[in-house]
Specification:
alpha/beta; Rossmann fold; six-stranded mixed beta sheet; four-stranded antiparallel beta sheet; 25% strand; Cell division ATP-binding protein FtsE; membrane; Cell_div_FtsE; ABC_transporter-like_ATP-bd; ATP hydrolysis activity
């Protein structure tokens, strides 16, 4: 599903954020990406959805070589992935239903397919009773559920979640994790950057630890140690 080989990322100011990173992700895996602030994990996440390009090395996601991908290919590539952000990035003037439906409209889904699919994913995330609400009428946890619904409405092969529980209380975070694990159990690859040691330790999955721009640990069922 994903292969990174000898990836290096240097920013224009000369800072090297990622140094010689290589890893392989199989279809259907659930990965945590952990590390202290400034370690490079956000850079890795952004390269995986082509927000950033590597300076050197190759990144293969599905059939796409991200290092060589032409700008016109980017929208087609992103149709196969879902992205969940810490700050939700919902469109404030659209309702819950419209925010999720918009993700299908931009990929030119058939009109007849949009309503049943949107209602299905909103039921999955527990928001079927709030389809007419606007983002400012929702709690933070509810907004994140809308963000997840939007990310999965086009049935992506990969969901990339960047600190999806970062601004949420523990109970709400558990609900978000329930959804992500359910998606994963149905075959979707999930890659989640997080600082939440309780979630990582209580819900073990493959763990990648980034420190100083390098991959320092790749462990199945790994946990936060006292030193992390």
């Amino acid at each position: 599903m994903i292969q990174m080989k000898n990836v290096m990322k240097q920013y224009d100011n000369g800072v090297i954020a990622i140094k010689d990173l290589s890893l392989t992700v199989d279809p259907g895996e659930f990965l945590y990406v952990i590390g202290p602030s400034g370690a490079g994990k956000s850079t890795v996440i952004k390269m995986l959805y082509h927000e950033l390009k590597p300076t050197h090395g190759t990144i293969q996601v599905g059939n796409y070589d991200l290092a060589k991908m032409a700008p016109k290919e980017v929208p087609y590539f992103r149709r196969g992935i879902g992205i969940v952000f810490q700050d939700f990035k919902l469109l404030p003037r659209l309702t819950v239903y419209e925010n999720v439906a918009y993700a299908m409209q931009v990929v030119e889904a058939k009109e007849a397919d949009i309503k049943p699919r949107v209602l299905h994913v909103l039921k999955l995330v527990g928001l079927e009773q709030k389809i007419r609400r606007f983002p400012n009428e929702l709690s933070g946890g509810e907004q994140q559920r809308v963000s997840i619904a939007r990310a999965i409405v086009n049935a992506p092969d990969v969901v990339i979640a960047d600190e999806p529980t970062g601004n949420l209380d523990p109970d709400t975070s558990e609900g978000i994790m329930d959804i992500l694990e359910k998606i994963n159990s149905e075959g979707t690859t999930v890659i989640m950057a997080t600082h939440n040691r309780e979630i990582v330790n209580e819900r073990p999955h493959r763990l990648l630890e980034i420190a100083g721009g390098r991959l320092v640990r790749d462990e199945q069922g790994g946990s936060y140690s006292d030193e992390n």
